[in-house]
Amino acid sequence: MISVVQALYPPCTCRMLQIVECGHSAEKLGFTRFCGIEAIGLSRNRKSLLKPILAKEDNGASRIEDGHQVKKPNGLAPLANHSAALIGKNLSEKSSIGNSMNILWHECPIQKLDREHLLQQKGCVIWLTGLSGSGKSTLACFLSRSLHSRGKLTYILDGDNMRHGLNRDLSFRAEDRSENIRRIGEVAKLLADAGLICIASLISPYRKDRDACRALLPNGNFIEVFIDVPLEVCEARDPKGLYKLARAGKIKGFTGIDDPYEPPSSCEIVLQQQGSECTSLGDMTKIVISYLDKNGYLRA
Known about the structure:
With 300 residues, the chain is of the alpha/beta class.
């Protein structure tokens, strides 16, 4: 059977239709085989340009006129249940979330498992939390480099970096810090769903906000890593000079000085400094990678 496509030619100067022969083979597109698709030509009526096309295997096409199926002149029947096919879900499944009304979740055929199989790893979120100066960002980069050398795809969501773009409208007030964490949690969820190993590196001082991010992901996909370094050690390091400014009263609401840090009550990994000795970056990275390997995140 020869597939025939009616196409407008030329597109803007006239309404002449050209017949294009596409050969004998039918091409698979998604899960439907299109063997005879007729494109709707442009019209002076703009509405006709936007009318959706329905395709059915070996049975031509039909289109929607004012919400109703219209049979082709050749008498072929249109595709059944076309509304669900066109929008991905039944209209009765509309939902309202927050200020977003009448929205639909559109499912796609390629799912997380397919992406994980392609990448040969399992998508997850490694959430590094701890005081400023505890070494979160440094560990995130070291961990990402080590996983990259193993052929694993990672992406770092750094707290300061996120405030350069997506979260630049947020302050450091308690409510804005919570919103900062919520947004980063949603981005981390998307990256994990894409099959990446997402490394989130940020103070995230409030336990309820971290727990809310955990709740966004399936069980086992959120790995909380508490970098437990005493305040006096972090303040002695003070790599950004922020503790000095906070002590001088030039920064208000600084975590550990005049704003609390709530340690995790039950996290997957604790990287704790013992006495005056600091665990090396290499050793901390090995602990995290060992956890990932043991729990199957480094294979599909």
